[in-house]
Amino acid sequence: MDANKDPCYQSFNNRAVFxxxxxxxxxxxxxxxxxxxxxxxSFFAELSKMPTKSLHLTKxxxxxxxxxxxxxxxxxxxxxxxxxxxxxxxxxxxxxALHKDQVNANMNFDITVKVPKKKRIDVDTNQTALNxxxxxxxxxxxxxxxxxxxxxxxxWQSEEIxxxxxxxxxxxxxxxxxxxxxxxxxxxxxxxxxxxxxxxxACKVCPGKCKPRDHANELTKWMNFQEEETRTLYDIxxxxxxxxxxTVSAEDLKNAxxxxxxxxxxxxxxxxxEITRCSNLLKxxxxxxxxxxxxxxxxxxxxxENKEKKPGYLERIKSFEDLLRKAELTKDVTDGxxxxxxxxx
Length: 345
Prior knowledge:
There is one protein chain. The longest helix has 41 residues. The two termini are 54 Å apart. The chain has ten helices and five strands, in the order H-H-H-E-E-E-H-H-E-E-H-H-H-H-H. It is of the alpha+beta class. The protein folds into two domains: 35 residues; 234 residues, no CATH class. The strands form two sheets. It has a three-stranded antiparallel β-sheet, with no helix packed on it. It is elongated and about 110 Å long.
């Protein structure tokens, strides 16, 4: 840009490149060639006056973005697993309500419901998945099997990296403008990044937050699916009988199942809030546009389910709609909306 902050433009005459230079008495081509060379001299002269920008942290920014993206993928897998479990609990609750008298009479009968399961599936050729042996989940796919395991982004602490990148970038800009050596600042940032990934941090994707030693690169990955399973009423109610130290009634059993549904709903909302936070963190390093709020993210999930129409999608949409109402209520209170103002009166 010029002194007025307006864009500067350079013109180039490249006609000489396309002229056949064996034409006798061609006086125009040498002139065009000289003009083109003057254009290039002018361009490089202007280029040498432009302030330099450091690209030392570009790779770290991209790595941080990858780490956040993996976190979001892991949270989405957790949400899907919770939704499947919610569907199972709801179906059992409906069956208990239909057979209330038999339950209260302590009669045993079979119940068939879809239950969440996990299975291994083969990955694409020349790729591997980083799986946790304790939690039986895939934490990163595709994952480079040739890299040192602790360098996988699932073990990075994205917030520290992002904050270091932002702080160091500002410092570098200040040092550059004052013509001060920027290498100590870059070296400090890289030292933090190395310490961050070499201290054996816990995985931020698997439920158990396990250490790198509990993970392995494998040729299969874990996938959640639903499968019909037949159980007896005694099998289902046993853990509730043991917990309450009595034979529970149909109403007690329904309340216990609803309590588990509410706990799963809470975990899903928490996961969606974390996805929103990761999206906002991506915006902080200028690698994504305007961040989504939790209600907006839930709406996107509803649109996705309507589009894909995978088995059980209507039940999942129903769950998302319940979550949407709660998320909108929370957002209204947080943002100081009508509901928040009502409570302040």
